[in-house]
Write a structure and sequence with these properties.
Layout (H helix, E strand, L loop, with lengths): L2 H13 L2 H12 L2 H5 L8 H13 L6 H6 E3 L8 H10 L4 H27 L17 H4 L3 H20 L5 H17 L1 H27 L6 H33 L9 H10 L9 H27 L7 H15 L10 H5 L1 H12 L5 H36 L11 E6 L5 E2 L2 E2 L11 H8 L2 E2 L12 E3 L5 H4 L1 E2 L6 E2 L1 H8 L5 E5 L9 H13 E6 L6 E6 L13
Parallel strand pairs: 2-5, 2-9
Antiparallel strand pairs: 1-6, 3-4, 7-8, 9-11, 10-11
């Protein structure tokens, strides 16, 4: 039998198991939303596409505008994984396909890594990984936090590696764990910290129990006690030390300034509603609440069963890890070291830890099928809701991007978004995601122009940074207010920079008479001319600088 035939036979054999077939079917179904729409409607995703393209083409001889406005960040920052992957994929496939492949990788890896970690806890419990599917298309993904989302499968991988090999960490396993931890650092430092907290708690719990058992013997084996403690702690520390040093370096550069903690009631409401699963519509609220209660019911079932049979295992410490995550969630600030949305990120981890704790438990057939059925129904319902939302929002994104081909390469673009979440027929198009705020990243990447509202360039931890002297965030005004507050003429006079094109999106009637809106309109009437108004709603207007000559840019696609 050829190798291909052997692999096919093994796959068919694996799929004959009902639970394996269900898992595989759900993985495939969860790829549908990504590939069903032209544009993935996230807030920051277009900015990632744009900056990955800048990384790829920064040294291209024809991209002089990139080198004029941007510098590349050479520090080892924990926000690079998604950009590097995207830039590499763009050498092979078109930009939008590259993003879809990136997102597909996340979808598949989250499912597989959750199954791997659950199987590491207890091979018979890997089926509980089905409970991870409802968390796939979460608020953080729709915000476009691709690096953080990739940290979730890396979190499962690091934790699963330690659970599987923590007792027998040889050279190979130590190196593998260390490499995975470094990968987790470059995905997101918060997930690295949560993984370390889990490993530390599990190691202390498991080692403590074993030391108590050894000490309880008539003649305690001191050497065995030392070997037990050393293998699980010292070798683990050695494996996890490099990313810890990288984190210390990151904090020393960025500082530890933090925002105040959120009000306890607000945090409880967010946790109870599982707000990190709510993005576009009210229908998601009902499904998120159902996910919360599913976890409550399964947790109660497992606790009642454990009390009844009085059987405890070493991995029951995972329940304490989940409880510890809840405590951290309530005590942590919502922003630190320049990063934000900490509470939204931390909401996910108690549920992820509970999935692994569920894997350590035993279930009767009825309860097992009930949990699988409930998780499957919720996951598919979320897919339907998200796929429907993507189709509806893509219609508006098409209108936003309708004038892109009129913009000449090697120029600059100032997008002015008056309504981040979109507004039509008296209603906002999105409940929480400002998908139009950075949608101009698609134009910047496609047309090879500098987007002056490139928020990543205004930070210190992304790969592409603005030169300070040309940074519109510092010299033009408040670009991302609603309505924006900008002074184009002042920016040009102070910096010597230029604003070649201005894109106005979704200026509402109630905003037209505001002073900031009138100021912008006066500048557009004086120095620009309208070259495009979108159809059918007229929500986008594109303006071109009056004195822009073809020598300022380059005609064609470059």
């Amino acid at each position: 039998m050829t190798s291909a035939a052997a692999i096919g036979a093994r796959c068919r054999g694996w799929l004959r198991t009902r639970e394996n077939a269900l898992f595989a079917a759900l993985v495939v179904l969860h790829l549908v939303p990504v590939w069903s729409a032209t544009y993935f409607p996230s807030q920051d995703g277009p900015a990632h596409i744009n900056n990955a393209n800048v990384l790829r083409e920064y040294d291209h001889p024809d991209r002089t505008v990139f080198r004029e406005y941007y510098v590349l960040n050479t520090n080892p920052e924990p926000n690079w994984a998604g950009h590097i992957i995207l830039a590499a994929l763009m050498y092979i496939v078109p930009m939008l396909v590259a993003e879809k492949l990136l997102l597909s990788g996340y979808v598949v890896l989250l499912a597989i890594s959750a199954r791997y970690a659950a199987g590491a806890v207890r091979p018979e419990g890997r089926w509980v990984a089905i409970l991870a599917f409802p968390f796939t298309y979460n608020f953080l993904l729709h915000m476009g936090f691709y690096n953080f989302c990739y940290s979730l499968p890396m979190y499962f991988l690091v934790l699963g590696l330690w659970v599987r090999h923590g007792d027998t960490l040889g050279l190979r396993e130590t190196v593998l764990l260390g490499v995975a931890a470094v990968g987790l650092y470059f995905a997101h430092v918060l997930s690295l910290v949560t993984a370390y907290l889990a490993i530390g708690g599990l190691a202390a719990s498991v080692t403590g129990v074993e030391l108590v058992k050894l000490a309880a013997g008539r003649e305690p084996d001191v050497q065995a006690m030392w070997r037990c403690a050393a293998r699980r702690t010292l070798i683990t520390v050695a494996a996890l030390l490099p990313p810890l040093l990288l984190t210390a370096n990151f904090l020393s550069q960025k500082g530890t300034a933090r925002s105040a903690r959120l009000a306890a009631k607000l945090q409880w409401d967010r946790l109870y509603m599982v707000e990190s699963l709510i993005s576009y519509s009210g229908r998601e609220e009902l499904l998120a609440r159902a996910v919360f209660w599913l976890f409550v019911v399964v947790t109660a079932y497992c606790l009642i069963r454990k009390v009844a049979v009085r059987h405890w295992t070493r991995w029951d410490a995972l329940f304490l890890v989940a409880a510890g995550y809840v405590l951290v969630y309530f005590r942590a600030p919502d922003g630190m070291s320049g990063g934000g949305f900490i509470s939204h990120r931390l909401i996910l981890f108690p549920f992820l830890a509970l999935i692994l704790w569920f894997a350590a438990q035993s279930y009767c057939r009825l309860s097992r099928y009930t949990i699988q059925g409930a998780a499957t129904v919720l996951a598919i319902a979320m897919l339907v809701v998200h796929t429907t939302s993507y189709a509806r929002l893509n219609d508006y994104l098409d209108e936003y991007l309708s004038g892109a081909d009129l913009i000449e390469p090697n120029t600059t673009l100032l997008p002015l978004c008056f309504t981040h979440r979109g507004h039509d027929d008296g209603e906002f198009l999105s409940k929480r995601i400002g998908l139009f705020l950075h949608a101009s990243g698609h134009i910047a990447a496609r047309r090879r122009v500098v987007e002056l509202d490139n928020y990543e360039g205004n930070t210190t931890y992304f790969p592409v940074l603005f030169r300070y002297e040309l940074n519109a965030f510092h010299h033009m005004g408040t670009l991302e207010a609603q309505p924006p507050k900008v002074d184009i003429a002042s920016y040009v006079a102070k910096t010597g920079g230029r604003v070649d094109y201005v894109l106005v999106w979704n200026m509402r009637e109630d905003q037209r008479d505001l002073p900031d809106t009138k100021s912008i309109q006066r500048e557009l009437d004086h120095g620009y001319h309208l070259i495009h108004t979108s159809e059918p709603r007229g929500m986008m207007q594109l303006y071109r600088r009056n004195d822009l000559s073809t020598s300022d840019g380059e005609l064609g696609d470059g």
